[in-house]
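Researcher: Please predict.
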Amino acid sequence: MLNFKEIIMNKKISYIWQLGSALLCMTLFFSCEKDILNQVPKDSLTEELVWTDPQGATQFVNAIYGNMPSGFDRNYEGWAKGLYLLDGTTDDGDVSMGWTHSNQLQSGDFLPSNVPWGETWADYYALIRKANSALENLDRLDDEALRNNLKGEAYFLRGFMYHELLRLYGIKSEGGEPTGVPLIDRSLTLEDDFEIPRASYAEIVDFIVSDLDKAAALLPSKNNTEAGRATVGAANSLKSRVLLYAERWAEAASAANLVIGTDYSLFPDYKTLFLTKNNQEIIFAKKFQYPDKHHQTNAGGTQGAGWDVYNTPNTYKGTSDGGWGGNLPTQNFVDAYDAIDGEPQATSPMFDPTKPFENLDPRFEATVVHDGAMFRGREVELYEGGLEGSPDAFMNTGYFLRKFHDEDLVIYSQSSDQDWIFIRYAEVLLNYAEAKNEATGPDQTVYDAINEIRQRAGVPDLITGLGQSEMRDKIRNERRIELAFEEHRFFDIRRWGIAESLLNGPLYGMEIEKDGDNYTYTKFPFETRSFPSKLYVLPIPQNEIDKNPAAKQILGW
């Protein structure tokens, strides 16, 4: 039996680990933590047993799923998880917790030595090393069906991690210096060169697409596997997103079309789809189930914290304290909602600026908490002098977020365990509509995809006769509303090249004055943002550059 202590201390493994470019040590591979996929952990495993034993091999792959960063549990400086969403640094949001590094990510006022969410670089490459190891060893498993499933999952997960790295730290470019990320597709040895430069953006996209094609050929359908595992639908859905980002329009539309009309459909109720585990709209999600796996598992920090604590105002008290405020929608975002008649607020006869929260797209109420709304059993007071309108409540924009909340959960009574949805069917429809419109213009299939989403929401279909540019605007706004605070906007405004125009200037909130039964609503600039062009990407953390100097910074970092 292997001596794990000797392995950890082995010079080769220590050297490779130091450079951040090799296999994780075996003790990390075989953690005894119970994960959400309900595999029974083993106390001691030889390498041979891991790759020849169905349970050992499955547990190895499960560890990749369990450690994937998500919006609910992304590593925050080693002491907490989640805290705020990337949307809080876009034109759609702000972050109540001003002491977080959200302020730096909003402005670009940081150095490679202190990158907001910079832990993701090492976290994703650690998972890629695990996926590489799995792909190199799973052929030793005798069970052919399980072997193929696990290999398909490993290909999918490796492609997923490279997609996350590419959209955070890379940028689409034509020629010039490579703007992808370092490509490591196998386990490295002491004889390998550990100075690995960035690959080109196109090379990383091609590698991801290849992995996803291999995954799709091996993976089962949604109805033939356990909830939370990768499927052929997940592989094709992610492929559609990757190709959309790469502006390979026809290919992206084709990939999305492989999913449309198959095992997935829109969940009837927009508000509760985020609280209904394993529903028909979910294509791929990170699974949580208290107490075995929750938003603060292995995080330390505040007992009982998680999404509901971080995103409830401090005026709402739980078993031990008040909420933290969290992610706050802006007026810029609220203005993007159509009125209930499907017209923009500026032109709809049903929109009344003296009653600005009435007669809007129903997704507004499902996403945003506004003055006078019910939240956690009482009416919200966001007017000046109200409970949430007090400066001490730190509701800077005049709104806070309803989406994802389990309002029946008493905060601090337990950590939150809502699943984080990485991919859902509505996104695939939006991916298809955008890609098809860019490839060939707004044919009927583009209308069908967008209108299916709008019908679920309860708003009228798009008007017919739109040109390509007009349809582009409608699709972009539909993505903004439908996928709000699911961490798409952060990347969408970057890939569309519009972040500088949106984020160099004031962002607006809503100020409310109450006089008896009369209310006055005034839009006001709560903050002035700046967006230097280098903020289209994150810099590689300096400690990672120190390990691998060949991976150069780009875009002026």
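Model: The chain is about 35% helix and 10% strand.
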